Amino acid sequence: MFKEEQIIKICKQNKWRLTEPRLEVLRIISHSKNPIKAYDILKKLANKIKNPKPPTAYRAIQFWQKHNFVHRIESLNAYQACSHGHSHAGAQFLICDDCGKVIESNLHEIPEILKKNTENKTFKPLRWNLEINGLCNQCS
Amino acid sequence: MFKEEQIIKICKQNKWRLTEPRLEVLRIISHSKNPIKAYDILKKLANKIKNPKPPTAYRAIQFWQKHNFVHRIESLNAYQACSHGHSHAGAQFLICDDCGKVIESNLHEIPEILKKNTENKTFKPLRWNLEINGLCNQCS
DNA sequence: TTTTTTATGTAATAATATAACATACAATAT
DNA sequence: ATATTGTATGTTATATTATTACATAAAAAA
Question: Are A38 and A61 in contact (CB under 8 A)?
Fold first, then answer.
Protein backbone atom coordinates (compact mmCIF):
# COMPACT_ATOMS: atom_id res chain seq x y z
CA MET A 1 0.00 0.00 0.00
CA PHE A 2 2.75 2.47 0.91
CA LYS A 3 5.41 3.63 -1.50
CA GLU A 4 8.94 3.88 -0.23
CA GLU A 5 8.86 7.69 -0.11
CA GLN A 6 5.74 7.62 2.03
CA ILE A 7 7.34 5.20 4.43
CA ILE A 8 10.47 7.34 4.66
CA LYS A 9 8.27 10.31 5.44
CA ILE A 10 6.31 8.43 8.10
CA CYS A 11 9.54 7.29 9.73
CA LYS A 12 10.86 10.85 9.84
CA GLN A 13 7.61 12.16 11.26
CA ASN A 14 7.71 9.56 14.02
CA LYS A 15 11.45 9.82 14.54
CA TRP A 16 11.94 6.15 13.78
CA ARG A 17 15.50 5.55 12.67
CA LEU A 18 15.53 4.38 9.08
CA THR A 19 18.86 2.62 8.82
CA GLU A 20 20.35 0.86 5.82
CA PRO A 21 19.52 -2.71 6.86
CA ARG A 22 15.96 -1.67 7.67
CA LEU A 23 15.45 0.07 4.37
CA GLU A 24 16.94 -2.76 2.33
CA VAL A 25 14.91 -5.39 4.16
CA LEU A 26 11.74 -3.42 3.59
CA ARG A 27 12.55 -3.15 -0.12
CA ILE A 28 13.19 -6.88 -0.37
CA ILE A 29 9.90 -7.74 1.31
CA SER A 30 7.95 -5.14 -0.67
CA HIS A 31 9.33 -6.28 -3.99
CA SER A 32 8.60 -9.92 -3.32
CA LYS A 33 5.53 -11.18 -5.14
CA ASN A 34 4.66 -13.73 -2.46
CA PRO A 35 5.52 -13.88 1.23
CA ILE A 36 9.26 -14.27 1.66
CA LYS A 37 11.14 -16.27 4.27
CA ALA A 38 13.73 -14.82 6.62
CA TYR A 39 16.68 -16.66 5.13
CA ASP A 40 15.61 -15.71 1.61
CA ILE A 41 15.52 -12.11 2.75
CA LEU A 42 18.98 -12.66 4.17
CA LYS A 43 20.24 -14.05 0.85
CA LYS A 44 18.94 -11.05 -1.06
CA LEU A 45 20.29 -8.73 1.59
CA ALA A 46 23.76 -10.05 0.78
CA ASN A 47 23.53 -8.18 -2.54
CA LYS A 48 23.30 -4.90 -0.65
CA ILE A 49 25.19 -5.43 2.59
CA LYS A 50 28.46 -7.26 3.11
CA ASN A 51 27.94 -10.73 4.57
CA PRO A 52 24.81 -10.09 6.64
CA LYS A 53 23.99 -12.41 9.52
CA PRO A 54 20.57 -13.67 10.66
CA PRO A 55 20.08 -11.08 13.42
CA THR A 56 20.46 -8.30 10.86
CA ALA A 57 17.50 -9.63 8.91
CA TYR A 58 15.42 -10.57 11.92
CA ARG A 59 15.93 -7.23 13.63
CA ALA A 60 14.83 -5.32 10.58
CA ILE A 61 11.83 -7.59 10.07
CA GLN A 62 10.84 -7.04 13.68
CA PHE A 63 11.15 -3.31 13.31
CA TRP A 64 8.73 -3.26 10.38
CA GLN A 65 6.40 -5.74 12.04
CA LYS A 66 6.26 -3.56 15.14
CA HIS A 67 5.11 -0.62 13.06
CA ASN A 68 2.72 -2.78 11.06
CA PHE A 69 4.38 -2.33 7.68
CA VAL A 70 5.18 -6.03 7.52
CA HIS A 71 3.14 -9.02 8.58
CA ARG A 72 4.27 -12.48 9.45
CA ILE A 73 2.22 -15.23 7.84
CA GLU A 74 2.38 -17.69 10.72
CA SER A 75 1.49 -20.83 8.83
CA LEU A 76 4.20 -20.13 6.25
CA ASN A 77 6.98 -18.73 8.46
CA ALA A 78 7.13 -15.93 5.94
CA TYR A 79 6.79 -12.19 5.77
CA GLN A 80 4.76 -9.90 3.55
CA ALA A 81 4.38 -6.15 3.23
CA CYS A 82 1.20 -4.77 4.69
CA SER A 83 -1.29 -3.71 2.07
CA HIS A 84 -3.85 -1.98 4.24
CA GLY A 85 -2.28 0.98 5.96
CA HIS A 86 0.03 0.59 8.82
CA SER A 87 -2.25 0.55 11.81
CA HIS A 88 -4.61 -2.23 12.69
CA ALA A 89 -5.05 -4.65 15.55
CA GLY A 90 -5.72 -7.67 13.40
CA ALA A 91 -5.24 -8.94 9.89
CA GLN A 92 -6.78 -11.52 7.60
CA PHE A 93 -4.93 -13.41 4.94
CA LEU A 94 -6.22 -15.49 2.05
CA ILE A 95 -3.52 -18.02 1.25
CA CYS A 96 -3.68 -19.84 -2.07
CA ASP A 97 -2.58 -23.44 -1.53
CA ASP A 98 -1.71 -23.74 -5.20
CA CYS A 99 0.30 -20.67 -6.22
CA GLY A 100 1.25 -19.47 -2.76
CA LYS A 101 -0.13 -15.97 -3.30
CA VAL A 102 -1.41 -14.29 -0.15
CA ILE A 103 -4.08 -11.63 -0.31
CA GLU A 104 -4.46 -9.43 2.71
CA SER A 105 -8.15 -8.90 3.17
CA ASN A 106 -9.94 -6.62 5.56
CA LEU A 107 -13.07 -8.28 6.84
CA HIS A 108 -14.40 -5.27 8.64
CA GLU A 109 -17.02 -7.27 10.45
CA ILE A 110 -14.51 -9.43 12.29
CA PRO A 111 -13.71 -7.04 15.11
CA GLU A 112 -17.38 -6.67 16.07
CA ILE A 113 -17.88 -10.38 16.05
CA LEU A 114 -14.78 -10.92 18.06
CA LYS A 115 -15.90 -8.45 20.65
CA LYS A 116 -19.35 -9.96 20.92
CA ASN A 117 -18.18 -13.53 21.03
CA THR A 118 -15.12 -13.22 23.12
CA GLU A 119 -16.39 -10.76 25.69
CA ASN A 120 -19.26 -13.12 26.41
CA LYS A 121 -16.61 -15.56 27.43
CA THR A 122 -14.95 -12.78 29.41
CA PHE A 123 -11.91 -12.85 27.20
CA LYS A 124 -10.54 -9.47 26.23
CA PRO A 125 -9.32 -9.58 22.61
CA LEU A 126 -6.40 -7.30 21.80
CA ARG A 127 -5.28 -8.46 18.38
CA TRP A 128 -5.99 -11.29 16.01
CA ASN A 129 -4.64 -13.10 13.02
CA LEU A 130 -6.85 -15.00 10.62
CA GLU A 131 -5.28 -17.21 7.98
CA ILE A 132 -7.60 -18.72 5.41
CA ASN A 133 -6.32 -21.40 3.08
CA GLY A 134 -7.99 -22.13 -0.20
CA LEU A 135 -7.69 -21.42 -3.89
CA CYS A 136 -7.39 -18.01 -5.53
CA ASN A 137 -9.33 -17.18 -8.67
CA GLN A 138 -6.30 -17.89 -10.87
CA CYS A 139 -5.95 -21.39 -9.48
CA SER A 140 -9.52 -22.61 -8.94
CA MET B 1 -13.51 -33.11 24.49
CA PHE B 2 -12.89 -36.81 23.90
CA LYS B 3 -11.85 -39.23 26.57
CA GLU B 4 -9.20 -41.75 25.75
CA GLU B 5 -11.67 -44.65 25.50
CA GLN B 6 -13.77 -42.74 23.01
CA ILE B 7 -10.74 -42.01 20.88
CA ILE B 8 -9.70 -45.66 20.99
CA LYS B 9 -13.18 -46.61 19.84
CA ILE B 10 -13.17 -44.05 17.03
CA CYS B 11 -9.81 -45.31 15.85
CA LYS B 12 -11.04 -48.89 15.78
CA GLN B 13 -14.21 -47.90 13.96
CA ASN B 14 -12.18 -46.11 11.31
CA LYS B 15 -9.41 -48.71 11.24
CA TRP B 16 -6.80 -46.14 12.16
CA ARG B 17 -3.82 -47.86 13.69
CA LEU B 18 -3.45 -46.81 17.29
CA THR B 19 0.19 -47.53 18.00
CA GLU B 20 2.10 -46.95 21.19
CA PRO B 21 3.85 -43.72 20.19
CA ARG B 22 0.57 -42.33 18.91
CA LEU B 23 -1.31 -43.16 22.08
CA GLU B 24 1.40 -41.82 24.35
CA VAL B 25 1.72 -38.59 22.38
CA LEU B 26 -2.02 -38.09 22.51
CA ARG B 27 -1.99 -38.62 26.26
CA ILE B 28 0.83 -36.13 26.71
CA ILE B 29 -0.96 -33.48 24.68
CA SER B 30 -4.31 -34.16 26.33
CA HIS B 31 -2.91 -33.97 29.83
CA SER B 32 -1.09 -30.72 29.18
CA LYS B 33 -2.86 -27.72 30.66
CA ASN B 34 -1.59 -25.35 27.99
CA PRO B 35 -0.42 -25.96 24.44
CA ILE B 36 2.74 -28.04 24.47
CA LYS B 37 5.75 -27.82 22.18
CA ALA B 38 7.07 -30.67 20.11
CA TYR B 39 10.33 -31.04 22.00
CA ASP B 40 8.51 -30.94 25.34
CA ILE B 41 6.29 -33.73 24.07
CA LEU B 42 9.45 -35.55 23.08
CA LYS B 43 10.92 -35.12 26.57
CA LYS B 44 7.80 -36.52 28.22
CA LEU B 45 7.66 -39.29 25.67
CA ALA B 46 11.06 -40.42 26.94
CA ASN B 47 9.32 -41.55 30.14
CA LYS B 48 7.29 -44.03 28.12
CA ILE B 49 9.43 -44.99 25.16
CA LYS B 50 13.16 -45.65 25.08
CA ASN B 51 15.12 -42.71 23.70
CA PRO B 52 12.55 -41.35 21.24
CA LYS B 53 13.72 -39.20 18.36
CA PRO B 54 12.03 -36.11 16.88
CA PRO B 55 10.32 -37.92 14.00
CA THR B 56 8.56 -40.19 16.47
CA ALA B 57 6.92 -37.21 18.11
CA TYR B 58 6.27 -35.29 14.92
CA ARG B 59 4.73 -38.28 13.17
CA ALA B 60 2.34 -38.93 16.01
CA ILE B 61 1.42 -35.25 16.23
CA GLN B 62 0.73 -35.23 12.51
CA PHE B 63 -1.44 -38.31 12.80
CA TRP B 64 -3.66 -36.64 15.40
CA GLN B 65 -3.69 -33.35 13.54
CA LYS B 66 -4.82 -35.11 10.39
CA HIS B 67 -7.79 -36.55 12.23
CA ASN B 68 -8.48 -33.25 14.00
CA PHE B 69 -7.87 -34.48 17.53
CA VAL B 70 -4.95 -32.11 17.91
CA HIS B 71 -4.48 -28.57 16.69
CA ARG B 72 -1.31 -26.65 16.09
CA ILE B 73 -1.32 -23.14 17.52
CA GLU B 74 0.71 -21.51 14.78
CA SER B 75 1.79 -18.43 16.66
CA LEU B 76 3.14 -20.56 19.51
CA ASN B 77 4.64 -23.51 17.62
CA ALA B 78 2.67 -25.63 20.04
CA TYR B 79 0.01 -28.29 20.04
CA GLN B 80 -3.25 -28.67 21.92
CA ALA B 81 -5.96 -31.31 22.06
CA CYS B 82 -9.11 -30.44 20.19
CA SER B 83 -11.99 -29.53 22.43
CA HIS B 84 -14.79 -29.36 19.90
CA GLY B 85 -15.27 -32.74 18.33
CA HIS B 86 -12.92 -34.04 15.75
CA SER B 87 -14.30 -32.70 12.50
CA HIS B 88 -14.19 -29.09 11.43
CA ALA B 89 -12.60 -27.12 8.64
CA GLY B 90 -11.49 -24.23 10.79
CA ALA B 91 -10.73 -23.34 14.35
CA GLN B 92 -10.58 -20.28 16.55
CA PHE B 93 -8.28 -19.88 19.51
CA LEU B 94 -8.31 -17.33 22.29
CA ILE B 95 -4.73 -17.05 23.50
CA CYS B 96 -4.07 -15.39 26.83
CA ASP B 97 -0.89 -13.33 26.57
CA ASP B 98 -0.43 -13.49 30.31
CA CYS B 99 -0.95 -17.09 31.47
CA GLY B 100 -0.61 -18.79 28.10
CA LYS B 101 -3.92 -20.56 28.32
CA VAL B 102 -5.62 -21.21 24.99
CA ILE B 103 -9.37 -21.56 24.73
CA GLU B 104 -10.71 -23.17 21.60
CA SER B 105 -13.82 -21.27 20.69
CA ASN B 106 -16.36 -21.92 18.02
CA LEU B 107 -17.49 -18.64 16.57
CA HIS B 108 -20.16 -20.11 14.38
CA GLU B 109 -20.63 -16.88 12.47
CA ILE B 110 -17.12 -16.90 11.12
CA PRO B 111 -17.65 -19.37 8.31
CA GLU B 112 -20.55 -17.34 6.93
CA ILE B 113 -18.53 -14.18 7.01
CA LEU B 114 -15.64 -15.91 5.36
CA LYS B 115 -17.81 -17.14 2.57
CA LYS B 116 -19.38 -13.75 1.95
CA ASN B 117 -16.13 -11.87 2.02
CA THR B 118 -13.91 -14.28 0.22
CA GLU B 119 -16.23 -15.39 -2.53
CA ASN B 120 -16.72 -11.78 -3.45
CA LYS B 121 -13.04 -11.78 -4.17
CA THR B 122 -13.44 -15.12 -5.95
CA PHE B 123 -11.25 -16.87 -3.43
CA LYS B 124 -12.46 -20.32 -2.46
CA PRO B 125 -11.86 -20.87 1.27
CA LEU B 126 -11.18 -24.44 2.32
CA ARG B 127 -10.00 -24.10 5.90
CA TRP B 128 -9.06 -21.37 8.29
CA ASN B 129 -7.26 -20.67 11.48
CA LEU B 130 -8.05 -17.70 13.68
CA GLU B 131 -5.76 -16.87 16.59
CA ILE B 132 -6.90 -14.12 18.90
CA ASN B 133 -4.51 -12.75 21.49
CA GLY B 134 -5.70 -10.99 24.59
CA LEU B 135 -6.35 -11.56 28.25
CA CYS B 136 -8.44 -14.31 29.78
CA ASN B 137 -10.81 -13.62 32.65
CA GLN B 138 -8.27 -14.88 35.19
CA CYS B 139 -5.67 -12.42 33.99
CA SER B 140 -7.58 -9.27 33.10
C1' DT C 1 31.41 17.56 24.65
C1' DT C 2 30.03 14.01 27.62
C1' DT C 3 26.60 10.76 28.57
C1' DT C 4 23.04 7.80 27.39
C1' DT C 5 20.37 5.32 24.35
C1' DT C 6 19.70 2.80 20.30
C1' DA C 7 21.35 0.10 16.42
C1' DT C 8 24.57 -2.88 14.27
C1' DG C 9 28.30 -6.65 13.57
C1' DT C 10 29.57 -11.07 14.66
C1' DA C 11 30.02 -15.68 16.62
C1' DA C 12 27.77 -19.08 18.62
C1' DT C 13 23.95 -21.82 19.51
C1' DA C 14 19.02 -22.77 20.47
C1' DA C 15 14.61 -24.30 18.81
C1' DT C 16 11.79 -26.32 15.35
C1' DA C 17 11.23 -29.64 11.74
C1' DT C 18 12.21 -32.95 7.90
C1' DA C 19 14.75 -36.31 4.66
C1' DA C 20 16.35 -40.71 3.86
C1' DC C 21 16.71 -45.35 4.53
C1' DA C 22 16.57 -49.67 7.07
C1' DT C 23 13.61 -52.54 9.86
C1' DA C 24 9.36 -54.18 11.88
C1' DC C 25 4.77 -55.00 11.96
C1' DA C 26 -0.11 -55.44 10.38
C1' DA C 27 -3.54 -56.36 6.83
C1' DT C 28 -4.73 -58.74 2.80
C1' DA C 29 -4.53 -62.11 -0.64
C1' DT C 30 -3.26 -66.57 -1.87
C1' DA D 1 -0.66 -70.76 7.36
C1' DT D 2 2.28 -68.10 4.19
C1' DA D 3 3.56 -64.76 1.00
C1' DT D 4 2.84 -60.22 -0.35
C1' DT D 5 1.91 -55.56 0.24
C1' DG D 6 1.36 -51.48 2.53
C1' DT D 7 1.97 -48.79 6.66
C1' DA D 8 4.52 -47.46 10.87
C1' DT D 9 8.61 -47.12 13.41
C1' DG D 10 13.78 -46.60 14.59
C1' DT D 11 17.69 -44.08 13.66
C1' DT D 12 21.08 -40.96 11.78
C1' DA D 13 21.75 -36.96 9.85
C1' DT D 14 20.64 -32.53 8.49
C1' DA D 15 17.66 -28.61 7.17
C1' DT D 16 15.18 -24.61 8.65
C1' DT D 17 13.96 -20.93 11.65
C1' DA D 18 15.26 -17.91 15.32
C1' DT D 19 17.71 -16.04 19.44
C1' DT D 20 21.50 -15.00 22.92
C1' DA D 21 25.39 -12.62 24.10
C1' DC D 22 28.67 -9.35 23.74
C1' DA D 23 31.59 -5.96 21.40
C1' DT D 24 31.42 -1.83 18.51
C1' DA D 25 29.35 2.16 16.31
C1' DA D 26 26.28 5.73 15.69
C1' DA D 27 22.69 8.95 17.04
C1' DA D 28 20.19 11.65 20.49
C1' DA D 29 20.01 13.98 24.78
C1' DA D 30 22.05 16.29 28.59
Answer: yes
Span A122-133, pLDDT tens digits: 888 888 999 999
Give residue-wise pLDDT tens across range B67-78.
999 999 999 999
What range does the domain containing A101 cover? 90-134
* Helix axes of B20-31 and B38-45: crossing angle, nearest 10 degrees: 120
- Cα A44 to Cα A25, A37, A133, B32, B45: the distances in Å are 9, 11, 28, 41, 40
Sort out which chain A residues have CB atoms less than 8 A from B129's CB and list them.
75, 130-131
Contact residues on chain A for B113, CB-CB shorter than 8 A:
107, 109-110, 113
Note whether residue A29 is domain-resident.
yes
Beta-bridge partner residues of A31: none
**CA-CA distance, A83 to B95, in Å (whole number)?**
25
What dihedral angle (degrees, nearest 10) is formed by the CA atoms of B117, A83, A111, B134? 130
Q: Is residue B139 part of a domain?
A: no
B76 interfaces chain A, CB cutoff of 8 Å: no
For residue A73, the cross-strand partners are: A78
A58 touches strand D (CB under 7 A): yes
